[in-house]
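Final report, Chapter 2: Outcomes

The project's central promise was a pipeline that accepts a single protein chain and returns its three-dimensional structure in a standardized token representation, suitable for archiving and comparison. That pipeline is now operational. To close this chapter, we reproduce one record exactly as it appears in the project archive, with the input sequence first and the structure output second.
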Amino acid sequence: MINGEKRGYRSTKKVDLWNQRDCTKRIVNSKVLSPAFSRSNAGEDINLMRVSSVGSSQRSGSHHYEQVPVQTSLPGCDFDGPAMNEMMTSFSGESRIDVHRFLIARKGDVKAATDMMKNSINWRRENLPATLETIGDALSLNCLFLGKPALDGSATLYFRSALFDSRKIPSEQFVLCAAHGIEYAIKSGATAMTVMVDISTVPGAPNLSADLKFIQKFAQVMSDVYPERLKRLLVYPFPWYGKAIWSLISMFLDPRTKDKVILVAAKGDERLPAEVSNYVSPHDIPAAVGGKDKKSPLPNMR
């Protein structure tokens, strides 16, 4: 997740990267944060970063990702149709599968989809790869991290709301931190994301109420920058009194995103609602966010 030389940056440091699944140590070089498979020259040790193995859950059986077109019945969005062929003339250097996502997001409107994809490319060029200077403060709270794959093979991104604190760190930095995780998962081969939002309280943590600014911006990035990447967003353990809050939050979400949100209520003092196991194995969920995985250290994306 931390790489070496990239155009426009000069490598000065390195980190040790431990893969939880095979414990293979890699030496990489730079303060620039991007995929682990990028290699570079040696530098000065500054950090030890642990990340979950994207796409390597033994229980899900997903050791790799198969790139296939998104299934859709929307008119004008055929993967080999004329609208796609027209879009490819503008994005000949891009993956046809990636271009297809934008066409679906704009329901076959070639002009709107073209503008959307250009804006996405520009946003990513301006904001990524993230650096320790741009997201280091948000990373230090460890409230966002990648986990082991969901049962359907989608990559998981965990958000621990209790540790989130926008009083000292701008919400935009947390959004960029999430984008960094999504980008890493995609470049590692993931085609879709399952976002796991743990809203349980943590003693001594900020435990702030929902930050609507962060939610709005995160939803906007998922919709506009990474269309058709969100498989589902699980919120757990969701309290009975949260319906009023949800009605307010849902106002900021587009219908397609809203339909992918699953509010999982807990029974009694249940830490991890049983329904979550329909999507992610409890044995692949870290204990810190209610799961049964007590052996793997909690990933630290810093």
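Archive annotation: Residues 110-127 form the longest helix (18 residues).
This record, like all others produced under the grant, will remain available to the consortium after the project formally closes.
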